[in-house]
């Protein structure tokens, strides 16, 4: 599986992991504290480390974590692990974040998500939140032998490639592809308007082309719809209506439904396949796909950010928002200087 190429046995990450309950189906670190970025997030040494912990039984995991790390939680801790799990699963993007935690001498933020909810998001892109994180290079710290999870991780990468193809011209560079892929989970994200550096996607990709190539290289070489000229770093894809229809039919189900909702006139009630056939012949096919992505990401990111006020607590939420605005301001100054 392509994702395994980026596994890390880094002692620092494993030391941090030792402070938490062990029952994890997947644990990974991501973001500017793990992979070098340019721009306002370039200070790797002092950047907050971001983690995601995937657990089979969130109630049991939070129960153990509350005993080990009571002070990590906001006021919701007094309501107990069942309420915390309900907030985690039923609101926002299905992930519960504890930010601004000092752990083993580093400032960290960690999110907890149910294995079943993650698998569903990887396959169907219900929220494209953690699934979106996993479309970019991450450091895998721990992964068990859950075959369904491993298969879903791989499917998520293949879906990212197909979706990016639909939004690209017939011929393009590796960098063009990776920028499109890295931007999928930011399409429609309101934080890209308020709080995030506008060049964030470019800053993620440019210093990490080799990591993206490692993540997606095998998938691109196996894909029958692309000519991958590795030495030149160029790709050519089939942009015929037939080729685009094949790609549209393999998109995650939620994205297909959103495209159908956008394109289906009121009262017509066409099935998804009929709508996708129409989109395949549309010169603006890529823009329709982008609108479909925005329809997934926008509400998901807004609900998750609102949820953060409760899971992080008001004080931490204000500090976190201030840091994001500071990054955006630094990015703007850099751009205009």
UniProtKB/TrEMBL annotation:
The keyword Phosphoprotein does not apply. Its cofactor is Mg(2+). Keywords: Lipid biosynthesis, Lipid metabolism, Magnesium, Membrane, Mitochondrion, Mitochondrion inner membrane, Nucleotidyltransferase, Phospholipid biosynthesis, Phospholipid metabolism, Transferase. It comes from Nyctereutes procyonoides. This is Phosphatidate cytidylyltransferase, mitochondrial. Pathway: Phospholipid metabolism; CDP-diacylglycerol biosynthesis; CDP-diacylglycerol from sn-glycerol 3-phosphate: step 3/3; Lipid metabolism. One of its GO terms (biological process) is cardiolipin biosynthetic process. Belongs to the TAM41 family. Catalyzes the conversion of phosphatidic acid (PA) to CDP-diacylglycerol (CDP-DAG), an essential intermediate in the synthesis of phosphatidylglycerol, cardiolipin and phosphatidylinositol. One of its GO terms (molecular function) is phosphatidate cytidylyltransferase activity. It catalyses: a 1,2-diacyl-sn-glycero-3-phosphate + CTP + H(+) = a CDP-1,2-diacyl-sn-glycerol + diphosphate. GO terms for cellular component: mitochondrial inner membrane. Its EC number is 2.7.7.41.
């Amino acid at each position: 599986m392509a994702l395994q190429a980026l596994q890390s046995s880094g002692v620092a990450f494993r030391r941090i992991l030792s402070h938490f309950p062990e029952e994890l189906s997947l644990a990974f670190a991501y973001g500017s504290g793990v992979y070098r970025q340019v721009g306002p997030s370039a200070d790797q040494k002092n950047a907050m480390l971001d983690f995601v912990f995937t657990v089979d039984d969130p109630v049991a995991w939070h129960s153990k974590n509350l005993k080990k790390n009571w002070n990590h939680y906001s006021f919701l801790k007094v309501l107990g692990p069942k309420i915390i799990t309900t907030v985690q699963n039923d609101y926002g993007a299905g992930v519960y974040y504890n930010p601004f935690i000092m752990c083993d001498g580093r400032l960290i933020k960690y999110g907890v998500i149910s294995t079943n909810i993650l698998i569903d998001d990887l396959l169907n892109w219900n929220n494209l939140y953690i699934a979106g994180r996993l479309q970019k290079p991450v450091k895998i710290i721990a992964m068990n032998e859950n075959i369904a999870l491993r298969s879903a991780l791989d499917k998520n990468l293949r879906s990212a490639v197909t979706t990016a193809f639909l939004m690209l011209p017939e011929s393009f560079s590796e960098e063009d592809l990776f920028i499109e892929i890295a931007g999928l989970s930011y399409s429609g994200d309101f934080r890209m308007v308020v709080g995030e550096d506008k060049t964030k996607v470019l800053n993620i990709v440019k210093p990490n082309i080799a990591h993206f190539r490692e993540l997606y290289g095998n998938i691109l070489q196996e894909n029958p719809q692309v000519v991958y000229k590795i030495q030149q770093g160029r790709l050519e894809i089939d942009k015929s209506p037939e080729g685009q229809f094949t790609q549209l039919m393999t998109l995650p189900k939620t994205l297909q439904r959103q495209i159908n909702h956008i394109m289906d006139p009121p009262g017509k009630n066409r099935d998804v396949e009929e709508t996708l056939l129409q989109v395949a012949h549309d010169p603006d096919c890529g823009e329709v796909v982008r609108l479909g992505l925005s329809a997934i990401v926008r509400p998901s990111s807004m609900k998750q950010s609102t949820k953060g006020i409760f899971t992080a607590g008001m004080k931490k939420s204000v500090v976190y928002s201030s840091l994001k605005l500071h990054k955006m301001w630094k990015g703007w100054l850099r751009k205009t200087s």
